[in-house]
Amino acid sequence: MIQSKLKEIRAFCESNSDPDIIKKYQRYFKEGYDGYGINDKVFKQQIEVWTEQWKDEMTIENFLELGDELMKNGRFDEKHAAINFLKASRKDFSKETFDRIGKWFDYGINDWATTDVLCMLILSSLLVDRVIGYDDLKTWIDPNSEWKRRAVPVALVEYNKLTKDLAPAEAIEVVEPLMLDNSEYVQKGIGTLLRELWKKHPNGIEHFLMKWKNECRRLIIQYSTEKMDKEYRKRFRRSKQGTPRKKV
C-alpha cells in the first residue's frame, strides 16, 4: 500500500515540476534546493485530495511509515507532503510520534524550511495538546543536526503564536543552553523567539539579553532587538572588553 502511494506522489511531482520555480527557490537555500518546484497552492490542494481519499485506509502508523520513506528518499516537496499528511492524524499524536519524527532529522530533514514546516504543523500541536512538554523538547538540544537544534526555538515560536501564553522564563530555560550554538540557523531561531516574546514581556527578555550580550553570537542580538527603537538597541551592543564565549 505504501509503495503505491509513493509512486502516485512521485508521478504527480514529476508531472507538475516547474523549472522557473526551481530557479526561484534555489536563491533561498545556501545548502542547495533539491525539489521539483511545484506551485505551492496546487500541491497543497492535491495533498488535501489525497488525505481525503486515503482517510479510511491510512492510520497514523501508515502515515509515519510513508513519511519515513519520503524523508529517506524524497525530495524537498515530498518531505513537505509527509509532514502535511501526518498533520491529518493529530488526534492520534503520542510521545511515540515525537520520537519518530525526531529520527527524520537523522536522514531526511536537511534545510530550514522543512524544519520550520514541521514545527508549525506538528511540533506546535504536540505542545499545545500537551502530548510533549518542554523537557521533551530539550532532548533535541545536543544532537549533531543543526536543524533539530533549530527546531527547539522555532517550535516555541509556533506554540506561542497559537497560545499567546508562553512565559519568558519557561522559554529561556529551554533555549539558554543554545546561546553559544555555532549554527546561524539556530541563532536566528533563538533571536526570533526572543523578539516575539519581547513584544509582550520586554523587561524579562531585556534582562536576559543584557546577561548574554557580551558572550552570545551577534546574530541572536540582531534578531532579538530588531523591533526596538534604533537608539534603544545600542544598549545591547557588546562592551569593548566583551568577547564571544566559545561553545565547549
Protein described:
The structure is a single chain. It is built from 14 helices and no strands. The radius of gyration is 20 Å and the shape is globular. It starts with a helix and ends in a 15-residue tail after the last helix. Helices cover 65% and strands 0% of the residues. Helix 4 runs parallel beside helix 6 (95-107), helix 5 packs parallel to helix 7 and helix 11 packs antiparallel against helix 12 (202-212). The chain folds into two domains: 1-92, no CATH class; 112-248, Alpha Horseshoe (Serine Threonine Protein Phosphatase 5, Tetratricopeptide repeat), CATH 1.25.40.290. It has helices spanning 2-15, 19-25, 40-54, 60-73, 76-87, 95-107, 112-128, 134-138, 146-163, 168-175, 184-198, 202-212, 218-225, 230-233.
Radius of gyration: 20 Å
CATH A-level architecture of the largest domain: Alpha Horseshoe
**Element-by-element helix/strand order:** HHHHHHHHHHHHHH
> Regarding CATH, which class of the largest domain?
Mainly Alpha
- What would the average pLDDT be, to the nearest integer? 94
Please indicate the percent range of residues in DSSP E strands (runs of 2 or more). Answer: under 5%
Globular, elongated, flat, extended or rod-shaped: what is the shape? globular
Helix content: 55-70%
